[in-house]
Request: fold
Amino acid sequence: MTSTIPAIDKLVENTIRADIRATASYFVPDANGYIKLDAMENPYQLPDALRAELGQRLADAALNRYPVGSYATLKRKIRAGLGVPSGYEVMLGNGSDELISLMATAVAHQDRRAVVMAPTPAFVMFSRAAQFAGADFVGVPLDSDFSLDLPAMLAAIERHQPALVFLAYPNNPTGNLYDEDDMVAIIRALGETGIAVVDEAYQPFARKSFMERLPEFPNMVVMRTLSKLGLAGIRLGYLSGHGALLEQFEKIRPPYNVNVLTQVAAEFALDHLDVLDEQAGLLNAERSRLAAELAALPGVEVFPSAANFISLRVPDADRVCAELRAGKVLIKNLSKMDKMLANCIRVTVSTPEENTAFLTALKASL
Ligand SMILES: Cc1ncc(COP(=O)(O)O)c(C=O)c1O
Reply:
């Protein structure tokens, strides 16, 4: 008997989808030893006393058990603390990344290609999730000031009949809030044929939301995350919308997608939202200072931001990023993401000390 040991490259080719093989992994740079300003994290921890109390709660968590499948307490705290309209349920995800993927999977028909749409430049997971689910992604370019190109969006909706349209409010990587009336026009145009996902990842800083308007638009879901508020490490996203939609999305959610430690930490944090809100307030004040100082630099164009990051155009983004990296400051080079973002960089708003370190390094690199 001859045993055949398959050549691994043949095995990969025979089994893994061609488009996946051709796709690069989502790259996360090693930030060890850097001032980390590339991922819109909140630089502040919880105060020591709260951390000690949380430590005790985590120690008491039943790690030997699966999470309680209903997540009833956590959901109740989200609904009560985060402005979900009465009568509306929430669905939980392992970060909003997972919710994006679940929704894309839910709309990706097997008998015809579904379309997932977003104004671009957009958060990269919208197109990746669409692709991995087996749907087509259609990006509709923003206007040059990063506002929605409403006629282009409406024409693209008419033409492609998207099942899902992601509208990040505020948008990443541009930082701006779209015009509310433009958003409403898009949601209305989708009507019975498409679901509008208002992605409010940066709502703690923008302090504007479509959440309270859920009852007006049965085809809208509002998605948020605890990541930017200060809990990126626990990975918890949530969304709310009409029960009939949530019921379908829930079918795809893996049963225990939110782990016990996340559940305990999130419930604890939701009991101390005032602390996180105060941190967001500090970051908003720093955003104003940073934006003003950046705007005063020659050759720098600063884009208005309602989020906890600022995007800006510099004379040579590759050089600036390389020099900042050499100085141990990590930011995001947006240049290759979209042609509208040539020579653009994005920096997270952080503590006064880290923002000043960034400003100093940036000035030296210009
Ligand atoms: C617009 C937008 N949505 C969603 C996310 C993902 O957030 P989470 O950490 O909840 O997966 C991000 C992260 O940067 C984002 O910018």
